[in-house]
Design a protein that fits this description.
Largest sheet: 9 strands, parallel
Distance between the termini: 45 Å
Strand content: 5-15%
Bound molecules: iron/sulfur cluster
Number of strands: 11
Radius of gyration: 21 Å
Length: 471
């Protein structure tokens, strides 16, 4: 029944194929000849199948694992350089009709205050985010047909794009809302969203149904086929993710890659991003009751093998993770992180409410400037770039540029120019000094001579007050 091209969830995420893959990896995970063959294929930097990837993930030979980590770093360097794209979540509403047992917004939780932002409150939150330096947001809202209908989400997107405060503006709004209809996805596309994000939580249907006992999200097929409907509605940048710790990570890792293979097979373009959240404590949620938690070591390896298996897909890690855990996964594959995040409704403007309505505890509590400073000192280029979606480089257009390596002539100068904007408008003096140093070193790594010299001119213009250049 396994068919990556099928439009039916249970055929493109086939339980029997996943189980066969787990058994195959059990048998071959330390088969040196097979591991070397898989590594040879991985060195072509075109990705791996779910079976090949799981064998690498399961392998326990230390020397092979070193090769895996070193290849992950090489692939990351080739496609993404030292750049790390920055974003922040913006929680609009925690009203929700679903019963997800790992999330404090579940309908039966009566201890959490319910809150939904008005357009005026959204404006205040966005100004606070702009004043931190953010240019890219991920909108978050619970599923509630009357409190958070699609009209509310669309109006909120319009409000966010309309706010220009000092030199600030939000240039890309990604949206993380519940699975919806093709018609609603079309409306989101028309509203100018960047990526549509929806976490699968787990690909294991049986566990999925137990973890989502009530509400529309209980329907596994409706949820799992959401990305297909988003693509049918014209959204060609979609972001996937599972919540590691809910069920066994090997099953979900394979399911995640099968989902990516399915989107590639059916629509010619895989996911734009994959997020790798791990379960965290929150109001009325005790994360220790989830016995499948993965260690930092497994987490790091999982990110490294993902980097190798889907070289063209951005990997996102949030402030759920500690500074230390984030540093480890940045080195082996992560390309996008949040900074200065508040995971509560109204959290950027009402400090004292922050914990009351939080969806999960934030582990990395540093300010955006502290995160930027830390990244710079680790040798990364924090990037506030949003150019591709604004230049119409989405879906297969984006993927072909990335696959050819040509994207480096856009990403590198855009990262440096947007970093310069951040340094001028928002950085502390220490961050500014560290950033200037990184910019002068990294400018030399723009591959094309002409692009490099235009970027250098534009950086000077930004210092004199100009803004919003892009390649
Ligand atoms: Fe609602 Fe999403 Fe939380 Fe589930 S995970 S309860 S759908 S907000
Ligand atoms: Fe992302 Fe495109 Fe900017 Fe590169 S140029 S960082 S791919 S938006």
């Amino acid at each position: 029944m396994y068919d990556p091209k099928s439009s039916k969830a249970e055929e493109f995420i086939s339980d029997s194929e996943i189980k066969a893959t787990l058994a195959f990896a059990d048998e071959h995970k330390n088969d040196r000849a097979m591991l070397e063959d898989i590594l040879a294929k991985a060195r072509e930097q075109k990705g791996l199948s779910h079976r090949e990837a799981l064998i690498l993930l399961d392998c326990s030979h230390e020397d092979i694992n070193e090769k895996i980590f070193s290849l992950a770093k090489e692939i990351k360097q080739r496609f993404y350089g030292n750049r790390i794209v920055m974003f922040a979540p913006l929680y609009l509403s925690n009203y929700c009709v679903n019963g997800c047992i790992y999330c404090p917004y579940h309908m039966k939780n009566t201890t959490i205050p319910r809150r939904k932002l008005s357009q005026e409150e959204i404006k205040a939150e966005v100004i606070a985010l702009q004043d931190m330096g953010h240019k890219r947001l991920a909108l978050e809202a619970g599923e509630h047909p009357t409190m958070n209908p699609i009209e509310y989400i669309l109006e909120s997107i319009k409000t966010i794009y309309s706010i220009k405060h000092k030199n600030g503006e939000i240039r890309r709004v990604n949206v993380n809302i519940a699975a919806t209809t093709v018609e609603n996805y079309r409306k989101l596309k028309d509203a100018g969203i960047g990526t549509y994000i929806l976490f699968q939580e787990t690909y294991n249907k049986e566990n999925y149904e137990e973890l989502h006992p009530t509400g529309p999200k209980h329907d596994y097929a409706w949820h799992t086929e959401a990305m297909d409907r988003a693509m049918e509605g014209g959204i060609d940048d979609v972001g996937c993710g599972v919540l590691y710790g809910l069920t066994t990570y090997r099953y979900d890792f394979v399911g995640q890659l099968m989902h990516a293979e399915h989107l590639e097979a059916r629509f010619g373009v895989g996911p734009h991003t994959i997020s790798v959240p791990r379960i965290r404590p929150a109001d009325d949620i005790d994360a220790s009751t989830f016995s499948n938690a993965i260690s930092d070591e497994v987490f790091e390896k999982l990110v490294a093998v993902l980097r190798i298996a889907v070289p063209y897909t951005g990997i996102i890690v949030s402030t759920r993770e500690s500074e230390k855990a984030r540093e480890r996964v940045l080195a082996v594959g992560v390309t996008q992180i949040s900074g200065g995040s508040r995971t509560s409704v109204g959290g950027y403007t009402t400090e004292e409410r922050c914990d009351d309505t939080a969806q999960f505890d934030v582990s990395d509590q540093r300010s955006l400037d502290e995160v930027i400073n830390w990244l710079l000192k680790l040798g990364y280029i924090p990037s506030f770039c949003t150019a591709c979606y604004r230049e119409g480089r989405t879906g297969d257009r984006f993927m072909s540029l990335l696959k050819s390596g040509q994207i480096a002539n856009c990403c590198q100068p855009n990262a440096l120019m947007t970093l310069q904007e951040y340094l001028e408008d928002y950085a502390s003096s220490d961050t500014k000094a560290a950033g200037e140093k990184v910019i002068s070193e990294e400018l030399n790594r723009v591959p094309n001579d002409k692009v490099r010299s235009i970027a250098a001119e534009r950086i000077e213009k930004i210092k004199s007050g100009a803004r919003d250049f892009r390649f």
